[in-house]
Amino acid sequence: MWLDEADGLTEIFKGYLPYYLLVALPIFIIMSPVNPVAASHEFSVYRMQQYDLHTIPHGCRSASFNLEGRSLTSWSTSRHCVVARIQDVSIEQFLEIRNKAGALLLVLPKNDTVLSAEEKEHIQLLEMAMVQDEISAPVYFAEWSPAFEDILRDLQHSFITDDKSGTALEAMLNTVSSNGYQIVVSAPVPAKLDSKPVTLHGKLVGRSGSAQTIIISAHYDSSGLVPELSVGADSNASGAVAVLELARIFSRLYASPAVRGAPSLLFVLSSAGHALNYVATKKWLEEQLDSTDASLLQDVSFAMCLDSISSSPGLTMHVSKPPRAGGAAHALQTRLGAPVTHKKINLADELLAWPHERFSIRRMTAFTLSSLQSHKEPARSTVLDTPSEPALHNLVSNIAATARALASHVYNLTGDAALYDDALNVDEASVRHWYKYLSSQSRAPQIVTTSPPSAGVTGALERALSRYLDVTVSVHAVDKREPEYTLYSPTRAVLYVYSVKPAVFDLILTLAIIAYLTVVYFAIQLFPRFYEEYAKVVTGKAKVH
Q: Residue of 8, 252, 463, 538 with fewest CB within 10 Å of its CB?
């Protein structure tokens, strides 16, 4: 009897089951998150700066994470990675994210030239706040792309909070229907880098019998929140380019004994600059002054440091103590017509304010020429320090003014120096080439101090300076027992973004599947009874068992 019923059931399901599948399968396909092609993305991202200065940790201390992506307004726990545009994050929001979120991913502006002055200042102040202390959560930066713009838009509209929803039903529907993102970075555990700062120096010897020396110095590395993206066009590609151009100009003048100046000119380029407290300059001075043969710096007239000289036309002279009237520094300041800013050296500060302070500590007359008015200006360490045509014009103008003032001092010219105009002309093509070259790539300490001295930017600068001078390359050792600084890798990683549905969607989908299977189960169990009733209606009599 049950066999006959089973046969009838089979016949009915043979006719109708395919139609059930045609209805059920599209429903499950529609409910799936996204199409497989757009379900994942891959991006190059750059980890936030990590270093120790005098054993004090700074920056990001972690590298890997696997978390759910949330917008700036919808994250809540350490299980979330906050994804936002850098210009949208306030300092207060960052402090909260640093203490509570699992990770932070910031997208840089599409083009920093379209940012307003207020937005640029906000980003620079945020960068300064971020690098002050250590951050346990991973922090990464990504360059703008259309795909990232879509992800940001989805995250902003996907997780609508209850107070932004009209009704509870709308909030629930928004939660269920939204698309989420799982964000993954797999990177090695941060490891210490073997850093060896380098100093390049070359000398133009003055007239016979004169031992007086003038130092023209600049650091050529850059500092910033993101090592891989820190090109430092103004700070301090501009200073390094100025040293190269001044070496070219004065090498022509000193090539002939008849017009050679009385003092010797010593040109110095060093790495490990502003961000690392000018440690390469410190090491170089120790090697030159504390050795048995200290003839290179036997009688220094003054040290002129060039730092960030392209942000505006005109230069400011920064000193640790006011120039003495009648002294060499005062004479050069008068010829340059630069205002003087005086700041005493505070050895209790973690960082020195300007590069000349390294020379002043060793009791040398020293000053820094800069377009910046204060050492605290955030423009010295920002990802927004990129090359521009106005900055290039300022750089050419400031190099020309510096060369003219220095030549007037070297040759003791009191009147018009028009006779030297041809010799002091700045080669704008050369300045443009080196300015574009140096500001087209990262020169962060993690890169320039861990590369061989003959490679990369250091090698290129050594070869350029060798055209005009006999260059000596000094590689400084870092005491590993008591290091003045420590750098860490990695600085770059690959980020994977997977499009997923939120957990509540999986819960509801699971409940829906359970309900569907329950209905199917009871339908099959009750089908014989239903079939009997159906037979009564059709035939008018009960089915005979």
A: 538
- Per DSSP, helices labelled H in 131-167 are 146-158
End-to-end CA separation in angstroms for the chain = 6
pTM: 0.84
Q: Distance (Å, rounded) from C-alpha 490 to C-alpha 495?
A: 13
Q: Of 167-171, 434-438, 483-487, 533-537, which range is least confident?
A: 167-171
pLDDT grade for 20, boundaries at 50, 70 and 90: low
Q: Which domain holds residue 521?
A: 503-545
Instruction: Note whether residue 109 is domain-resident.
Output: yes
Residue 351 lies in a domain: yes
Domain co-membership, 299 together with 336:
yes
Domain co-membership, 153 together with 285? no
pLDDT in tens, 429-487: 999 999 999 999 999 999 999 989 988 999 999 999 999 999 999 999 888 877 899 99
| Pair (130, 230) in one structural domain | no
Report the domain count for the chain.
3
The number of C-alpha atoms within 13 Å of 429 and in the hemisphere containing its C-beta is 0
Which positions ≥6 away from 321 have C-beta within 8 Å? 342, 344, 360
Stretch (H or E) spanning 214: strand 212-219
> In what order do the strands lie in the sheet containing 264-270?
340-342, 316-319, 366-370, 299-306, 212-219, 264-270, 198-204, 471-475
Exposure b/e, 420-457, CB count within 10 A at least 16 = b: beeebebeeeebbebbeebbebbbbbbbbbbbebeeeb
Residues 201 and 167 in one domain: no
Residue 120 CB coordination number (10 Å): 18
Same structural domain, 207 and 148: no
